[in-house]
Specification:
Strand content of chain B: under 5%
CATH topology of chain A: MetI-like fold
Radius of gyration of chain A: 22 Å
Oligomer: heterodimer
CATH superfamily of chain A: MetI-like
CATH class of chain A: Mainly Alpha
Radius of gyration of chain B: 24 Å
Order of helices and strands of chain B: HHHHHHHHHHH
Number of domains of chain A: 1
Structural class of chain B: mainly alpha
Distance between the termini of chain A: 26 Å
Structural class of chain A: mainly alpha
Mean pLDDT of chain A: 84
Number of strands of chain B: 0
Chain lengths: 302, 317
């Protein structure tokens, strides 16, 4: 009995089982159908799409300038005229900053997972399919990264490299490669053991064809579901790094950084000081629920 | 059993070697060389060279690594560039404080998670199950450093019933068992325990539910065993999986603690690490990372071994 422990701390326990079904068009259609019938997933998707669109279109929404400071209008409370979510410690409009902040916060949460998915996924599939010494080499290197709690790894790497958006992206990508690689390796190894792979080999298919047709079709789903479950972790981690002053540099609007600079205001205007965290919370909860919905929709045997 | 433990320990050696390489590389990831970070830019070249020689930065990298490894293996983690104190001493005292907080958060999270998870699995009404599922969802989704700020706002700023920061009265850095120190622990403990609480509740709920549907439970019921006795058997069967997840969570708590300690100015390793980063005190950064990673590895090993001990079904080759 092989017990699989969850592969990343902050996220929930994700056990991926391969779906030994032909992942053809019919499969994806039924996944789409199940997703469309899941109200929770739909609501979360709507909220996230709204957030993404609003943050992307923020310069054209007629909001106040998120960089414009004012010594006179500092820490206005919620519901002030012209600033319905108040102003921050430098007098900048909070609503504009929260919406603009979505750009960097979402970007810094999603990008590392995408990069890690490409790198870790390829490495894991390679290790799982080739097996033997290659598997050993790749997985032992991953074990080294596993010896660190992921938050510690992210903070130590960012701390050594210094603050900045690129460094944060780099260190977060490094943090997420090992878990994705491990999951990819374990699913690929399982798929490789199925009879249809042997059948393909016996019929003379090249390794490339087998991977492309038989392996990828079966492993991509579970890996993708696992990766989506990491996005909420990545968003919290990225915000956490900025909160420590290791991520985005001021005066850029970013939720984690805003939480940090507004900490001085908790005695003056406590509700305002907590607002950026609400945005992080909403985003992360939506990504978690969507990932759960996706897993439910995809794990069912067709 | 002993053989298994030994084998796992031996397996840890190459991993530990990799960890040491990575930690060593941390210093060289830094922009510029480690010395230029601490001396003023107009420092005379002789001084810089002297300092480089003193810290050994003038040697080729492999030599530096071997030297560093040799010294580190004797327990000497170098000297803090910022304070001039021994890194081992600084990390040691901070580590104790982190562990105190981690233990308290672990106990709180796991006790609550077992109660919540089990009652959700047993619940006849869907409301209880839904509620517990929601709690665990919030646990895994909430940015815990934000929760820490919210807790400070509610309980320290608005209600004024608990201290907002520090470990004890008058910037205490040594923990003692008294009322003041316990009061200072309440908020950090709650903030630190939300993530493990969410993850472990999820695991306990699904594992207990799965166990409840097994045939042996029906057999025990048919035999007329009391429900409380059956619960004991169910928990015993669910324990190994839950233990594995708990172990990992306990270790990750040490990492999550970095942010919480910063919010509460708790004088632990996270706080130390954070301040070292801003003073560009690379030996401290290195030392803290190494100690925490070492602890994490040993903890994982221990959990693994305990798991094999409590679950005779696991036979590991």
């Amino acid at each position: 009995m092989a017990l699989q422990s969850p592969s990343l701390d902050i996220g929930g326990a994700v056990l991926v089982k391969p779906t030994p079904t032909s992942a053809g068009r019919g499969y994806w259609q039924s996944v789409g159908r199940r997703l469309r019938r899941d109200p929770v997933t739909l609501v979360c998707a709507a909220i996230l799409i709204l957030l993404v669109l609003a943050s992307m279109a923020s310069p054209w929404l007629g909001m106040a300038d998120p960089y414009k400071t004012s010594m006179l209008r500092r820490l206005y409370p919620l519901g002030s005229p012209n600033h319905w979510l108040g102003t921050d410690e430098l007098g900048r409009d909070m609503f504009a900053r929260l919406i603009y902040g979505g750009r960097l916060s979402l970007f810094m949460g999603v990008t590392p997972v995408v990069f890690a998915l490409m790198i870790g996924g390829s490495l894991g599939i390679l290790a799982g399919f080739v097996g033997g010494k290659t598997n050993m080499a790749i997985m032992r290197v991953m074990d080294v990264f596993y010896a660190f709690p992921s938050v510690l790894l992210a903070i130590s790497l960012s701390g050594a490299m210094g603050a900045g958006t690129e460094n944060t992206l780099l260190s977060l990508t490094l943090v997420f490669i090992p878990p994705i690689c491990r999951v990819s390796e374990s699913v690929t190894t399982q798929v490789r053991g199925f009879d249809f792979v042997d059948a393909a080999k016996a019929s003379g298919a090249s390794a490339f064809t087998i991977v492309r047709v038989h392996v990828l079709g079966n492993v991509l789903g579970p890996i993708l579901v696992y990766a989506t479950s990491l996005i909420s972790v990545a968003i919290i981690l990225a915000a956490g790094l900025s909160f420590l002053g290791l991520g985005v540099k001021p005066p850029e609007p970013e939720w984690g950084l805003m939480l940090n600079t507004l900490r001085q205001a908790i005695y003056v205007n406590p509700v305002l000081a907590a607002l950026p965290g609400v945005m992080i919370f909403i985003t992360s909860i939506c990504f978690n629920l969507m990932s759960d919905g996706l897993r439910a929709a995809m794990d069912v045997k067709a | 059993m002993l053989l298994y433990a030994l084998r796992r320990l031996i397996y840890l050696v190459p991993v530990a070697f990799g960890v040491s390489l990575l930690v060593f590389a941390l210093v060289h990831l830094a922009p510029g060389d480690p010395i230029s970070a601490i001396v003023p830019p107009d420092a005379p070249k002789e001084v810089v060279d002297k300092l480089k020689e003193y810290y050994g930065f003038d040697q080729p990298l492999p030599v530096q690594y071997l030297r560093w490894l040799g010294v580190t293996l004797t327990g000497d983690l170098g000297t803090s560039i910022g304070t001039g104190r021994s890194v081992a001493a600084e990390v040691g005292s901070a580590f104790g404080n982190t562990i105190i907080l981690a233990i308290s958060a672990t106990l709180f999270a796991f006790t609550l998670a077992v109660i919540l998870g089990t009652s959700a699995a047993y619940a006849k009404s869907r409301i209880v199950d839904r509620l517990v599922t929601m709690i665990s969802l919030i646990g895994v989704s909430v940015p815990h450093f934000w929760l820490a700020i919210v807790l400070v706002i509610i309980f320290a700023v608005e209600l004024g019933v608990l201290p907002p920061m520090g470990m004890g009265p008058e910037n205490s850095t040594g923990w003692t068992f008294d009322r003041a120190h316990l009061a200072h622990m309440v908020l950090p403990t709650i903030a630190l325990s939300v993530i493990p609480l969410g993850v472990v509740t999820r695991t306990v709920r699904s594992t207990v539910k799965e166990t409840l549907s097994m045939e042996f439970v029906t057999a025990l019921q048919a035999k007329g065993m009391r429900d409380s006795r059956i619960l004991f058997h169910v928990l015993k069967n669910a324990a190994p999986t839950c233990l594995a997840v708990m172990g990992l969570q306990a270790g990750n708590l040490i990492g999550g603690s970095i942010l919480i300690e910063t919010v509460f100015a708790w004088p632990g390793t996270g706080f130390l690490l954070n301040s070292a980063i801003f003073r560009r005190d690379l030996p401290i950064l290195q030392g803290t990372t190494l100690v925490l990673a070492g602890f994490f590895m040993l903890l994982n090993l221990t959990v693994d071994i305990i798991q094999t001990m409590v679950d005779p079904r696991i036979k590991r080759g």
